[in-house]
Amino acid sequence: MIINLINTVLLLIMPFLFVGTIKKTKAFFAGRKGASIFQPFYDFLRLLKKETVYPDVTTWVYKFAPVIIFSSVIFASLFVPMSCGMSIVNVPFAFVIFSYVLGFGKFFSLISALDTGSSFEGMGASREACFSTMVEPAFFILFASVIALVQINSFESLKHLVFNSGVYGYLIIILASIALFIMLLIEGCRVPVDDPATHLELTMIHEVMILDNSGFDLALITWASAIKMFLFASLITSLILPSGLPLWLNILLFILCIFSIAITVGIVESSMARFRMTHVFEFVFVMSILSLLILTLSTYRIYGGV
Predict the structure, then answer these.
(1) What is the DSSP track for 126-183?
(2) CA gap 292, 195 in Å, rounded
(3) Which of 150, 163, 211, 258 is the 20 to 30 Å CA partner of 110?
(4) pLDDT of residue 166
């Protein structure tokens, strides 16, 4: 009960700090002081006070989509391990539910963008859908390999990976962490896949899909996007942190790892330019390659490896 309460508090607070840390890191590398790491939370409150405007051509899909997007992310977060490597709801094959629930929310974000009738938003929706078709198979391969290796069919298999995988454990953890970090950049629409700070419609993906959203709807979409990045960071942390630590130490290390991942995202965005659209697909395929390597190592370990 206490761990579930702590995880709930972390889920509500940490996404804002995660995004704020990324912006603070980018400001540091740009030679600026930058806004406070709490600024995303202030922006969220500011959006809640603004009026929501709906285009005349839109239907009920556009009006309900932000709530469905946010609800899907919140529901998916219940299955993700956070502090102590434990999730709020632990069920078998939670990674399947997690993926499909997020996919359900993404589906509504796509049709919501199409509902506006804007060619730019339709272009962004097309790109988002294309990336998802390549990312999700790699995600399933990665976690199916880990589950087969550890013989625990839930997200909690991550914290047992080292103890059940012999000499391959650390290599699999490194490869899986890199693959999930790439997925974080893709799903979070960060550099080098997308640039959330740009306003050039021809090069935007996620931001162009929400150009017509405002007020309360935009606040929900922004919060959902931050939570999604936090969830993938939590999965990476579950891979890295060992099990059996005291509660206070586990929570402290979990928070430090989350901030470290946010700083890493900020460093990547500060040191790299956004890829050309033709090269983005090559970057996405790197995650697929890493997942196949994990599958190969897991298979070798299961069938006679050392």
Answers:
(1) HHHHHHHHHHHHHHHHHHHHHHHHHT--SGGGGGGHHHHSGGGHHHHHHHHHHHHHHH
(2) 28
(3) 258
(4) 63
Q: CA 290, CA 246: separation in Å to the nearest integer?
A: 32
Q: Are 261 and 112 in contact (CB under 8 A)?
A: no
d(Cα 145, Cα 291) in Å, to the nearest integer?
8
CA distances from 282 to 129, 185, 192 (A): 16, 14, 11
**Tokens 């995988």 appear where?**
165
Please report which confidence band the pLDDT of residue 142 belongs to, taking 50, 70 and 90 as the band edges. Answer: very high
Q: Could you write out the DSSP letters of every residue in 176-221?
A: HHHHHHHHHHHHTT-TTT--TT---GGG-SHHHHTTT--HHHHHHH
Classify residue 84 by its DSSP letter: G
Q: At which residue do the structure tokens 């050039």 appear?
A: 200
Residue-wise pLDDT for 79-101, tens only, equals 999 887 788 888 888 999 999 99
Rg (CA), the chain: 19
How many angstroms separate the CA atoms of 60 and 112, rounded?
A: 9
- Contact yes or no for 38/16 (Cβ under 8 A): yes
Q: Are 259 and 15 in contact (CB under 8 A)?
A: no
SS3 (DSSP) at 1: coil
- Region 195-200: what's the mean pLDDT? 72
The tokens 């922006």 sit on which residue? 43
Report if pTM > 0.90.
Answer: yes
Contacts 24+ apart (CB under 8 A), 88-92: 88/4, 88/7, 88/8, 90/154, 90/155, 90/156, 91/154, 92/153, 92/154
Distance, in Å, from the CA atom of 113 to the CA atom of 208, rounded to the nearest integer, reads 9
Whether 189 contacts 207, CB under 8 Å: yes
Nearest to residue 264, comparing CAs of 22, 14, 11, 19? 22
